[in-house]
């Protein structure tokens, strides 16, 4: 049983005669008759009453029973053709820290979503320390965060670095004019953001935790909102500082003795799932094209 035989049968039922069915299918009457006979021979039953003196073909009792089956068969075939026309559909599970997901990667995700063949994205926002086990378990296919990993199951590669600078309310035009000595900063007005351990170590050299108690905030975005009304300051990555300056009410300055730059690491499993290898290749190709000025 094939689509063309079913199609011929349904056309005869719909248009009443073999000649009209042939016209609609753009084939000869002989071809329609042959397809119908092939279907009847395969089923071992007559489906239509037809012959000399009969102007229109009519369904036999068995033909009436078979009609609903033929219609479902045809619907499945048409749905299969629509599915084929969509082409291959890819998927990728991506994880990153909030500041990268919110301010660096939206352009990347937009490109992936408009890629052909289409790709379903599963975007996770987590703390960097949570990525290694998630990638090991293949819950996430690729993760980008601030922490290195020594897991034997993972591939960990540095991607980009961003200097850490001091951000405060001010005129954006005055940004990056003269570096600030950290000792000149009023530690009572600091909004402390928990960057990687190297930042904590640097911070301890100037403001030991047993002597100074800054205000802790969960994210750079929240720090900006608080800073706008409190005259506070915070240490943030340069790419985010530039974003803050676009608002017109913030400025940033380099530090004379800065902390280590933030390094973003790419984590993938050494043996990724076979069905995401193509998606990973596409992801890394677009990642290379990400504007250097963004980060």
UniProtKB/TrEMBL annotation:
Organism domain of life: Bacteria
InterPro entries: LysR_HTH_N, LysR_subst-bd, WH-like_DNA-bd_sf, WH_DNA-bd_sf
HTH lysR-type domain residues: 1-57
Pfam families reported for this sequence: HTH_1, LysR_substrate
PROSITE patterns registered for this protein in UniProt: HTH_LYSR
One example GO MF annotation: DNA binding
Record keywords, A-Z: DNA-binding, Transcription, Transcription regulation
One GO cellular component term noted in the UniProt record for this chain: protein-DNA complex
Family to which this protein belongs: Belongs to the LysR transcriptional regulatory family.
Name of protein: LysR family transcriptional regulator
Source species: Megasphaera stantonii
